[in-house]
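sorry for the late reply, my laptop died twice this morning and i had to redo everyting from scratch. anyway the thing you sent over, i finally got around to it. pasting the sequence first so we're on the same page, its 141 residues, then the predicted structure underneath. double check i copied it right bc i was rushing
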Amino acid sequence: MCEFFVKADPIQYEQRSRTVRMHGVLTSIRLENMVWDLLAEMAEDEGCTTNALIAQFHDEILAHRGEVPNFASFLRVTCMRYMRRRMMALEKAQSDAGLRAQPLQVAATDALTTPLQGTGTDGRGALRPTLSPVVSPIRAR
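ok and here's the structure:
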């Protein structure tokens, strides 16, 4: 099992800082490349920019909790929850269609090992996996 994780592309867990503007204030956020990739995917699903999505998350967590003690960790956990929700939706769709679990395992492996498109993290322009028929795993519709 560990071999799967150990063989991850080191570029995925390298950190990169980005400057994000929230309410006119520039803020630097340092996250792993894979987290930035997932945030870009989530923003695309929502039809907005990555910066707009991050600002929306900040506003919503601030409104809900009254403070944002560790926003970078919040974004990492948000990405993990996003991926979990996508996998659960795929599993449900396959279950509803009467498919076996093996294709789900293959899809999960592909989703975790295939670099996302347009992020510059793999240098080859590889396409990201599509886990249809998920609509938007960020918010219920």
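The helical segments are 2-6, 10-13, 33-46, 50-65, 71-96, 102-113.
thats about all i looked at so far, will dig more tmrw
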